[in-house]
Amino acid sequence: MRFRPGLVADYREDAAIFRTGTQRVWIAVLLVVLVLLGVGAGIPILPGLFTLTLEGDMLLLAVTALVAAIGAIGLNIVTGFAGQVSLGHAFFLGIGAFTAALLGGEEVVRSVSTGEIVRGYELDMIIWLPASGLVAALAGLIVAPVAFRLKGLYLAFVTLGLVFVGGHLFREFKGITGGVGLGREAAVPSLLGFRFDEDGEVFGIFLSAEQKHFFLALVLLLVMGLAARNLARSRIGRALSAIRDRDIAAEIMGISLTRYKTIAFVVSSFYAGIAGALLFSVIGRVEPTEFSDLPGLLLSVEYIAMVLIGGIATISGSIMGAVFIIFLPRMVEELAATGLLGFIGESAGSGLLDVSQLARVLFGGFIVVFLIFEPLGLYGIWIRVRNYWKAFPFSY
Predict the structure, then answer these.
(1) Strand 285-286 vs strand 205-207: parallel, antiparallel, or unpaired?
(2) Higher-scoring residue by pLDDT: 344, 267
(3) Of 295, 302, 294, nearest to 327 (Cα)?
(4) Among 22, 165, 302, 384, which is most buried by a count of CB atoms within 10 Å?
């Protein structure tokens, strides 16, 4: 057993969160690296040549990636584990963002002459963060009776309609959302008096607001990632996998399709609500146009891409996909700055493709390539590399 880490002797060992000691060690190493990056320490990749650091906009991108990973995990629960295609993830992200802004934001008098007020109750994060997830979960519960009667392309069209319905609601409820072109201040990230949006010392270490947000997002991602992993290996997770693989056979076995599809939508919506609330508390402002019509559709497709490129039905794949998609535009910018590809211009009209156009082309291209050549995404590539080196030098 010591020299055969892939061999397990009982079901409990096979269903463990970390099946081997090697996995536990590497997870611990990864967490140490993330903590060091979060406090501003550099990690030497190529000694004397390249040191990995997170500073400025790179740190903000890292925070965005960690928060987006929470939303991607939620979408993977309903799409990857349960096999229910959802294109309405932006709707639940928006519900979470505006719920947080309502409960945790400040009340603003928009117009003295008309008496227009944008409500805000300035509640603590310990209230508005879980409330954002719960309100989004309630919306998922309302949608579920329609969703569990459909599957495949029909379900995709129904959830796509949520984006347009939500866009109309976000535009019209100006007392909550602030209205088109104005929006409102996001929730204040304050936990029991501790402010995450202000620079200050924590246990004697000076941290910027971005660094505080980084550790907040990292802790929440760990908690929600472990919760999703536990859900996947539980009775509910096994039922969702059975429904995904063959729903008729699952129903014959006594698995309630209605019950478990509803659970998948509710849990997925909860994760999306938490992600939406966190994301816009970092940005500092939330506007209805972020979730309506075309922007909302593109946002939903972006999260679908995180799942497809990262790896369907895997928690670690969701995280990989979120990091890849969030950092893709920045990688394109760095590539354009090197001048290695002369047809790439840094601004519109300065080349055959500008940076934003190339990023969109690569975005669509990666989706197609992974669907055709590696359906398991980045997680599948990691499995191939890991298995190769485990068997080396007899890798065939």
Answers:
(1) unpaired
(2) 267
(3) 302
(4) 302
67 pLDDT band, cuts 50/70/90, is very high
Amino acid 395: pLDDT? 57
Cα–Cα distance between 370 and 353 in angstroms, integer? 23
Cα 125 to Cα 281: distance, rounded to the nearest angstrom: 10
Do residues 143 and 96 lie in contact, with contact meaning Cβ atoms separated by under 8 Å? no
Among 134, 91, 95, 84, CA closest to 258 = 84
Side-chain-side CA neighbours of 34 within 13 Å: the count stands at 19
What is the end-to-end Cα distance of the chain in Å, rounded?
A: 22
Helix, strand or coil, per DSSP, at residue 52:
strand
SS3 at position 368: helix
* Cβ neighbours of 334 (radius 10 Å): 11
Q: How far apart are CA 32 and CA 27, in angstroms?
A: 9
Side-chain-side CA neighbours of 142 within 13 Å: the count stands at: 9
Tokens of 60: 């903000």
- pTM for this one? 0.93
* Cα 223 to Cα 220: distance, rounded to the nearest angstrom: 5
How far is residue 265's CA from residue 273's CA, in Å, rounded to a whole number? 12
CA distances from 5 to 9, 49, 223 (A): 11, 36, 26
The token duo for 344 is: 């790439």
Strand blocks (E) in 244-374: 285-286, 344-345, 353-354
Q: What is the pLDDT of residues 142-190, one digit of tens each?
A: 988 887 788 888 888 889 999 999 999 999 998 889 888 888 999 999 9
Half-sphere exposure at residue 321, Cβ-oriented, CA atoms within 13 angstroms: 35
CB 70 within 8 A of CB 227: no
The verdict on whether omega for the bond into residue 393 sits within 30 degrees of 0, i.e. cis, is yes
Amino acid 338 reads: T
Distance CA 304, CA 308 (A): 6
Cβ-contact 343, 354 below 8 angstroms: no
